Every structure is written in structure tokens, then in C-alpha cells.
Amino acid sequence: DDSAPPLPGRDGENSNAVPLPKRDYRSTQEYIESRDEALAYYRRRATKEKAGSVRKAKSAKEDAQMTEESWKNARSQSVKDRIKQKFLKKKVETMPVFSPWMIYLITYAQLIVLIILTYKGNFDTIAFVPKFVAYNISTLVTATGSEISSFYEPINFWIGPSKTVLIQNGAVFSPCMRKDHIIGARYRKVFAIDKLSRDGCCVKELRNVVRGIYTNERKCNDLYGPGSTFYPQTCLKLRNQRVVSNEHSACCYGLQGHCQLLTLPDCSKIGGTYHRNRTCEQVNCLGILCGFGGLEAKAPRMYEPTDPNQWWRFFTALFLHHGIIHVVIVAAAQIYIGRRIERSAGWLRLFLIYFVSGMMANVAAAYANPYAVTVGGSGGLAGLLSVLFIELFNMWAILSDPINELSSLCFYLALMFVIGTLPGLNNFAHLAGFIFGLLMAVLLLPYVSFGKWAIRRKRIIAGVSFTLLLILITTLLLFFSIVQSSEFCPKCDSFNCIDFLANYCSKFRPTQASSAALYSGQESAYYSDQN
Hints:
By secondary structure, this protein is of the alpha+beta class. It contains 17 helices and eight strands. The strands form two sheets. Strands 3, 4, 5, 6, 7 and 8 form a six-stranded mixed β-sheet that branches. A two-stranded antiparallel sheet has the order 1-2. The radius of gyration is 40 Å and the shape is elongated. About 35% of the residues are buried.
């Protein structure tokens, strides 16, 4: 009952009895019933209060005695979760906090390198769509008529140096790093020249002007047709004797070791390197493009590097970028993400995760797009982003809103892949960097364990991650250096580039020229590989 009945009492009874106001009872029986009802009520209330006090005391005692070792024996799952959450928070709060200096050092180095390259090399044309250029090479008249040269003018809407400058300063470019099967087959087909054929000057008089090209005797008629004359000496010597009016020599151009016999003005028009009084068979165009040595050629095949082995480009390319816009985006993102990671994980873990992810991302990009120029720290940045995913799952139990944090990370990841469809960037590098970052994070990040099983589980996962890491590294390097088949996914081009305009991606895609035409003296100045 909510209201307590009055407790009757009389003189001479128990002193604990509560005296009641005087009232008249009709009978003794009425008095006894009223007294018994009041006594029963107070007994029930006293029993309830005592039971509640006992429960409170017992709960307080259980909470006080609950420790890291005894939480497993608790029957209530809510108590388990509460104790575990308190323990994890305490562990996280006691973890060391590091000063983020390594990520700043990496970013400053990338900015300084871009400033130096910008100062050394001229900017490419700033545009979003390449411009098609075609012109007559009036000084080269072959048996089929005047030679017409055409190419896509190299552009860089990232506002930065040309691809040639990037290659000559350490960008990832497969032909400089391995003995490329496709380029090697092209060389062997194009330069299948009769050993008995002599080198010299092919001369023909056209419109009262005597013109000459330094080539071999077998190709003389192909270049100038019937009526041409071959002299077993250089065109320069004949020019000094006033026999020829101009001189054609080897001109190296493009990004795949292309060569054509041109005059110096025509070679300059297509941005080539002119080699006076030399044929294409005598010039190592690929070695000149790559630079840094290590791509020497030996006689008689002076046109083909013997053993390209500039593997260090996988590392140096992380400090190069396509331009100002590119480096600003990467620098801002990696400082924002890398600073958070370095504070909790330290500089050494960040260094290993960033550079292992970045270098293996470059390997994947070079395998998927072997004739594209790969630069930038976006592969390492993808690796750092994956670390945030691992940290989120490790701390899921103590975060107030983990779903919101997961949504933010997924948005950043999707944004990275959207940006990766722009020209010059490579989504295969982003994907590989993210995967290697996940494996490195599982292997290296500090982990808050709770109980013996959690420690054992952490060791098992780390062992599996290390095994997968070794398998993936070995597989990628073998595929890049030996297999060299980039046609594993013919329809994956849309993963790297989206046609914002009609045939937009085809103007940027590195392409192989026809092997039958190259170096024959009859080819046009194929230049789309410069983009």
C-alpha cells in the first residue's frame, strides 16, 4: 500500500509502538485488525529497503573487485563491455605521443625538388586537351613524296615540367629500368640491316638543289628513289665540297627511343635531340633519354641499351611531381593524414609504411602502364590513408561514433580514385599503395590487446600479413621484370582515365608506333608517346 495505516498503541505496551491519536473503536476486533494491518505494512517496507541496500552493496563490491584478470568470470555482458572500454581508454591514454617531423621533412623535400626542376626545365604548354600539329618536312623528299610530320603537342595542365625532364631526373619509366621485350623486338626488326651494306651519303638532285641523307647503301633507293647516288663518305664532307645543300642526321625524339633522319631545324620542331653526321643505327636514343648511365650500348648494336637497370627510380619518383597543382594536393593531404599517424605511431613506422607503400605502388603502376611516366607520392599517401582504417577498427569499441568516422574515410578514399582518373596519375598505384599500406599497418602499428587470446590473435594476423607482403612484393617484381605483359586487363583503361571529352583518354595514352615503319626513313614523326 502507498499510504501507511496508523499504528495503534496503548499504555503499558511496547515503547516502540507508535502512539496514535485517540479514536473510538467500535470493538476490540476492529482495534486488533487495524493494528495488525499497520504492523504488516511496516514489516514489508523494512524488508524491501533492506533488500535494496543489500543489492546496492553487492553491486558496489563487484565493481570494486572487478580487475583485468577477473572480468572473464563476470556473468553480465554489460559489465564486461564497461570494464573493457575503461581498460582500453586507459591504455590509449597512456600510449606515447610523438612529434610529427618526418612527414614535414618528406613534404619539404618534394616541394624543393619541384622548384629545382621548374628552374632547370621549361614548363610544358598549360592546357587540358592536347593540340594536334602537322607540318611538311620540306627538306626530306622521299620516293613517296614530301615527308609529313604530325604529333600531339605535349601539355601539362598540372603546371610543371615536361615528361622528358621528369624521366631525366628519376621518374619511373619502364624502358629505363628493365630490358623491355617490346622495344627490343622493335629494334631487332627495324635494324635488320645487311652486314655488307656500307654507310655513307645518299644524294639526289631535286629542282636544282642537291640534297643528301647519311644512311646506308641498301636504304638509299628507298629514301630518294631512282636516280639517287650513294657516296661511301659523310654528307658533311660532301657538303664542305658544295655537293649537297643540307644534311640529315639522326634525331632522337619521343619517350620510346624513336629516331628519324632529319635536319637540325626539323628536329628542333618536334623537340628532338640532333646527332650530327650519325645514323639512327649509331645512336642510343633510349640511353640519352634516361641518362644517369647504366644504359650503355655496345657495337655493332649501338642503338640498343645492353642492360637497363635503373631500379632506384622506384624510390626517387616519390619526390617528383607533375606540377604545382599536383604537389600542392599531395602535400596538403599527406600532412593532414601523416601528422595524425606519426603522433601515435612514431617517425620510423610512418617512414616504413610510406616508402614501402609508395615504392610498391610505383612497381604496380609501371607494370600496368609500362610506357607512362609515373611520379608523385600519391601511392605512399594511399598507404597512409589505409593506416587510418586499421586504427579505426582497433579503436572501434571506445569511439563515440565510429560509423561517422568510417564514412569520412571512405569518402576520402573514393575522392582519391576519382582524382586518379586525371591524365598523368595512375589509379593502379593508388590501389597497390592502399593494399600494401593495410598490410604494413597490421604488421607495424601498436595494438591495444585485452587478454591472452587478443595477443595471440594479433600475432597470427601479423604473421599472415607478413607472408602476404612477401608474396605480393615478389610477384610484382617478377611480373614487372620478366613477364612484362600489361594486357592482363584490356578493359581497365577506364579505371585510369575517364573520357571527359570525346576520345580524350586516347590522346594521353602512351602508344607504341608501328615497328615496320620506325627508323626506315619513311616514317612520320610519330610523337603521341610524348603524352
